[in-house]
Amino acid sequence: MEKIRSLSEFEYGALKEIGNIGVGNSAVSLARLVNDIVYTRVLDIKFGLIEDIPKITGFSESPVLGTLMRIKEDLTGYILVFFPENGAKNLCMSLSGEKEKEDLTDPMNLSLIEEVSHILAGTYVTSLAKFLKLNLSISIPFATYDMSGSIFNSVVTEIGYIADFALMLDAEFLIKEKKINGNILTLFDPESLDCLLKRINSMIDQNP
Amino acid sequence: MVGIGDCAIARCPVKIKTSGLGSCVGVTIYDRHEKIGGLLHTMLPNIKKAGIKDNPTKFTDAGIEYLVAEIIENGGSRRKLEAKLVGGSSMFENSHMNIGERNIKSAKETLKKLGLEIIAEDTGKNYGRTIIFDTLTGDLLIKTMLRGDKVI
């Protein structure tokens, strides 16, 4: 049976920092891909009941392109990278070099975004693994284009099948010149959260 | 407006809405005679395996039982109740996530057990849905992003 817990100020800060390290590294990859400066920040960290998470994040019926990957090995959970409609179109345009407004239902574009998201999530997870000295890997990407609420809903449901609580890290990146913004959403199950916190605490003990 | 793992009951002429159904299932139960109905938005197929069971509306089986009991308590008559089923899609193709399917199966079994007839459904596939339930007519307006709107 899982214990209901709340995060201390310190744990919250440490998790936020970990999120920052991950998304910072992803930003470097993205910057190389689009050849432009990428701004990032961690928007939110929440630990709570699965069914409350959608209320917190305030997703809606607005269209997004979402790519889902599973986090495996020492920590388990899901990574969701998504780009709102316009950001995704601009990203396709900037990568393919075409001037026309891209059609996001086109399989070529879907797979392009899928690949970009996989690279972002890959660097994110690799940097977390390095920093925390854990083994982590991610599955192949699955992309879909739909209402943000529905995409998020199905991921939350999936984690709800194995856990009642989840830790959510929401990070944002922004490329001003090309008007691309997107989010990386990480959902860990509670066991992984415990593992994370233990790891953070042991690292602090080693470096007084 | 109904959130995830939540339900609402209303009388004519109120409309109830739930948005962004993915693998979750939306169930409406309606008494045409009394013009009273309820909308349920559940996440998981069954309550038996769950660790925390204090929210029945999070589970398809317990949620439907809860909603039917509430409607009867508020003046609906069990023999006249009709059900509609929406959602349960698998948003990410080939990703081996089949909770949607199991949600639909669980919903059908529960409704059968309670002796309720499913008069319409729009389930499965790979896209999200938003539904608006009209307690005046019992009609369900289903909105999707790429596939237009329809009424069941």
Automatic annotation (TrEMBL), chain A:
GO terms for biological process: chemotaxis. GO terms for molecular function: hydrolase activity. It comes from the Archaea. Signal peptide: none annotated. InterPro entries: CheC-like_sf, CheZ_family_phosphatases. Keywords: Chemotaxis, Hydrolase. This is Chemotaxis protein CheC. It comes from Methanosarcina acetivorans.
